[in-house]
Amino acid sequence: MSNLEIDQLNSSFTPVEEIPKIHHDLHKAFSGGVTKKLEWRTHQLKQLSYLLQENEMAFEEALAHDLGRPKTESHIGELVGVRHQVHNALSNLKSWLKPQNVKTDLTWLIARPKTYREPKGLVLIIGTWNYPVALTINPLIGAIAGGNAVMLKLSEQSPAVANLLTVLIPRYLDSKHICVINGTIPQTTTLLGLHFDHIFFTGSINVGRIIAKAAAETLTPVTLELGGKSPAIVFDDADFAVTGRRLIWAKVMNAGQTCVAPDHLLVSKESEPKLIESLKQAIRDFYPPAPAPNGRQSSRIVNASQLERLKGLLRDTSGEVVATGLGKAEEELGFPLTIVRKVTSEDALMRDEIFGPILPILTYDSVQDVFPPIARAEPLALYVFTSDDRNFELVREQTKSGQLVRNDLLIQFAIPGLPFGGVGKSVFCGLNSHFFCRATNFYPSSTGFRELSWPLLLPHLHLRACFGQPFPLGRCAFQLALPSLHYR
User: Fold this and answer.
1) Which CATH superfamily is domain 6-225+424-451 in?
2) What angle do helix axes 185-192 and 205-217 make, rounded to 10 degrees?
3) Catalytic one among 259, 429, 437, 466?
4) What is the pLDDT of residues 73-125, one digit of tens each?
5) Which of 34, 51, 144, 299 could form a disulfide with 69 if both were Cys (CB 3.0 to 4.6 A apart)?
6) Which CATH class is domain 231-410+465-485?
């Protein structure tokens, strides 16, 4: 099925009364031991690879349907990374399953102590809508590699992708051990009332709190990948032309609906005019006065409710709109990229994560003033634009964040081996925050494997991903990787 017609997919919501039986059957199926076998895990991962490869065009169409996203952006920004994770799991699964010798006292060496990574059991994965393929399939890869049975709750906010996965997963994967659940609040509430061996959720902080409370009632370990307001600090010595282009590029990607998109900018009062001019120039470059006949391809806001929320933020802000870019028409759920200056920490734009193409600018007298609020907020990502290594080290030492990136944005997803995950309020792992990271796009299969199998070690540590590069390197490196995404 290389090009499935979206209109032909009419998957209905899962009846609430059927969910407990599905849950019981999956628990019973897991107890049979089939999922523990290497052959089962390998076969399911291969089938998942075929699912992605043979239906790539259908996924691109579904993402365009749900998010208005250009196919090239979906292909490079989401689908390629998922396929890489499947292949990574297949290549490394045998080594992941090998028992690990324990370094211990000489007295106990004769006992040959080892640790084995065992499946947890029945895992609930609750997907989200902004990257509905990657943020659903990547945890599934880890769950399968870990030898678990899976209930997969798809996001109703991305119906085309949910319908497509509902059709494809039973065709390619073992339906006795992997089941799809569709629905809204009633279905999710029913699921959270059941006992699972692990819950894996990606989404907002508010929903994360609800899931954590429900999981506590059944003493279920959870992994919550949440969001937050990810700031970008622009030092006076930054290359403003490059900085402006990268900020605009990152903010228009998926219409700003990315958990690590720059949420707001922090710049000195002296450098604010230079930053604003660089942003305006980038907008002029990305949105020329004479667009293509069919308009510039760009993602849209996911639904009318989110669109109204963004419009309300602009109505309530006390800031000054200084620049806007073109986008899809409002009737197509479009929202123009909007730069806002004279924003304070008490402004409406600073209350919650913006999660859209609005970029507020806050100024400071001394950069030292911005460090305590950032450390308290514990953002998922923190971006720093500077030409001085000492500035970068200063930020690293005095702030706390899931990731720290210098002179670039978003590309921490694309660096193999680099941990990716939140800290504090931006992530919650009931047992293992040390291993909650992402090596390439979204959740790496190695991380999902560790998170959804035993043993779980070092819960008191956080791996902070740091990526720093000089401006000249960044001008060419990622542009070669994503030439079609207007990265300069």
Assistant:
1) Aldehyde Dehydrogenase; Chain A, domain 1 (3.40.605.10)
2) 40
3) 259
4) 999 889 998 999 899 999 999 998 999 888 888 888 888 888 888 999 999 99
5) 299
6) alpha beta
